């Protein structure tokens, strides 16, 4: 039986992903059962997890959902429970702690057997990464450094021959990390996915599902215009300082401070609802402007 997987960056977060997942799952009667096991792994000291939109969607479709926190179970209990499900959905979190608990419960082989028997595998973030053969390359990103002292291999379930790379943003920094991960990684291929995207797997075939691009609102266009204007002004200042045509004064330093405050305000606005529509280009421009401000500060110190 062909393996069926749906690997997301941040869950079933938009209508496109929900529709594509529904087409993968097929009619309810074709599933092993209508039970969806939502598998997580929360550390004892962690606060309770926020409500999950993926779980909410399954409930709205009249699936029976059951949350399973691996940290709460002893070995030998979950195999039968997972085998009765129609869908195993691994939620995100600390991939190293999740991997540790899977090792403790000896679940790698049983879960692979579940997927080979026709049960659908779904995942958010870390849950998507675990479907691969080896995820050691993800530690190259500073945000993915192991958060627990746990010496072990980074063996995933081995369900796919590539490494999903969730929460990807098209900027120079992540591109460099991705290139290094591709070079050093043990997997055959790295497939980046952004928030709102997913990898749909049917047997040996897979495709990246993209959400439709929405047009920016008038407010978002105004914000982008303001960002571009700010960066233009900073670029002009940087050129004048570096060419020696402008001498630093207290007024100039005050101008720099004002520019920095303005950029911080713009960053805050980018975090507001709907910012994802233009976040990639805006963050890229903001990063460039901060680099220019650093150059100006250095030139001021030299004078």
Task: Sum this structure up briefly.
The protein has 303 residues and is of the alpha/beta class. It is built from 10 helices and 9 strands.
Question: How is this structure best described in words?
Answer:
The protein starts with a strand and ends with a helix. The model is unreliable at 271-279 (pLDDT under 50). It is elongated. 27% of the residues are buried. The protein is of the alpha/beta class and 303 residues long. It is 44% helix and 14% strand. The protein has a 7-stranded mixed sheet. Strands 6-7 form a two-stranded parallel sheet. It has 10 helices and 9 strands. The chain has 2 domains: 4-209, Class I glutamine amidotransferase (GATase) domain (Rossmann fold); 218-302, no CATH class. The chain has helices at residues 15-25, 53-60, 78-83, 95-104, 108-116, 126-129, 172-184, 218-243, 250-270, 279-302; strands at 4-8, 35-40, 64-69, 87-90, 120-124, 163-165, 190-192, 198-202, 205-209. Strand 6, helix 7 and strand 7 form a beta-alpha-beta unit. Helix 8 (218-243) runs parallel beside helix 10 (279-302) and helix 9 (250-270) packs antiparallel against helix 10.
Write the layout of secondary structure elements.
Blueprint: E1 4-8, H1 15-25, E2 35-40, H2 53-60, E3 64-69, H3 78-83, E4 87-90, H4 95-104, H5 108-116, E5 120-124, H6 126-129, E6 163-165, H7 172-184, E7 190-192, E8 198-202, E9 205-209, H8 218-243, H9 250-270, H10 279-302
Parallel strand pairs: 1-5, 2-3, 2-4, 4-5, 6-7
Antiparallel strand pairs: 1-8, 8-9
Helix pairs in contact: 8-9, 8-10, 9-10
